[in-house]
Request: fold
Amino acid sequence: MSPASIAEAFRRSAARVPGKTAIHFLGERYTFARLDALSDALAAALHRRGVRAGDRVILYAPHCPQWILGWLATQKLGAAAVPVTHFYGADDLRYIARDSGAETAICTDTNFGHLDRVLKETPLRQVVVTRVSDLLPAWKRGLGHLLDRFPSGKVRAGADVLSLPALLSEGGRPPPLTAGGSDTAEMLYTGGTTGHPKGVPISHAMLLASFAEQRRASLRVIPEGQEVVLQGSPLYHILGQVIGIAAVVAGETVILLPRNNLDAVFDHIRRYRATTILGTPTMYRMMLEHDRIDQYDLTCLRFAFSGGDALPAETARRWKERVGQPLYQGYGATETCGGVAVNHAGVEAPENTVGKVSAHQRILVADPETLEPVAPGQGGELLVSSEHMTRGYWNKPEETARCFVTVQGQLWYRTGDMVRQDAQGWIYFQDRSVDVIKHKGYRVAASKVDNVLQEHFAVVASCTIGVPDDSVGERIKSFVVVKADVKGVNAQDLIRWCKDRLAPYEVPQYVEFRDMLPKSKVGKVLRRELRSEEKRKAHIG
Reply:
């Protein structure tokens, strides 16, 4: 019988392979038995402090075993994890804490300062703090701190600030779990098309289905139980979850690095005989261009998966020439819980395809204006539906009505992306929504950047677009109109303004000043026209 919840699936794996390595991190191995016991202890401690089924718990930390530990503990309580990027500052944290209603957060000491700034302005009532080194042996912690190898942050004392090691020392087991199926397992925030991130509630059933379908893609080359995943995509990103977190839930192994230093990536692939790696096209391009790649043996890799952006054909060809294995591509979104289409290992695929539709998903290629299906082989907007699909955004009825539509009696999610499907079922990506920029695998809301720019005293109007760039997917460029009586404001001034208010990956690389922006008859800025203009420039150049 299939498990009804993430916690049940993980417990089954831990019982089946208790001594197997679940996580490699900084030279240490964490077995499934240890991870199960630690997540039980944390879940029990959180339950004693009021965390209940249905509550939201923010996870705000870089890659470390404690991230997975916190995620599993949340699942064992039937609460919903709310993973957020550790790049976020106080403004985004304030918004997400308020929007999600989370009362508990788990963070590292290096992130605590941002959370502490907003605690009194949010529903948050307690913060669990850990150092990245907390679960390492005492000698390694001491040596690391002596050599200043571990970053550290200031953490104040207080009844609302809890120490992760202290909570774990209490021991115990959580109460029996009743959540599962259609209950929310986690809520991922996505940039989407608006100025504020939108919460996407994802059920246990949808996560488990997505985990299973993504794993099927590599089964021909990696037998069940033998996968070793090098976590190249963030744990808070759906791509990182449907491959990396999925491996832990299924009883396989994941390799975590605090950050993706390429020499460390290559060394960990070789040392731990990684079979699987995941990342964005940008990451693979950087790996191929690294001047020491030839010093490492990467022949253990059997399934290299690219997601988060369109994969350039040249990058795919170079990877196969260098590594001897194909670079597999897929297509997905946070709202669809990852994979909508995927290329399966061992299946010869045409160039530039993102694969065939995953078994648990249904698609409709439709005219974006009428939502009528287009003729076979013609391009149109991709709509996605599934049995356990997300049915809308958290607390966003207007955005839900715009993006989740009923067509022919069926609920569909509108991706905003243009694709075509050929007679053999292969899907080809053609163009993305003009409102979303894919930069280094991140989804950047163009309107969010515009909102920040328009808060500047000198700016009258702005329009931000993505400019195609093979190295990073798209670069962020903002077109700006300033007040006629303002002098001396330059592009670097506006970029610095954005750096103080946006995550690093959201900051525009270019600012171009204009006397006016192209607009429709009803006054709407024509973002697509500016994108077309930039493409023409690139073609001429």
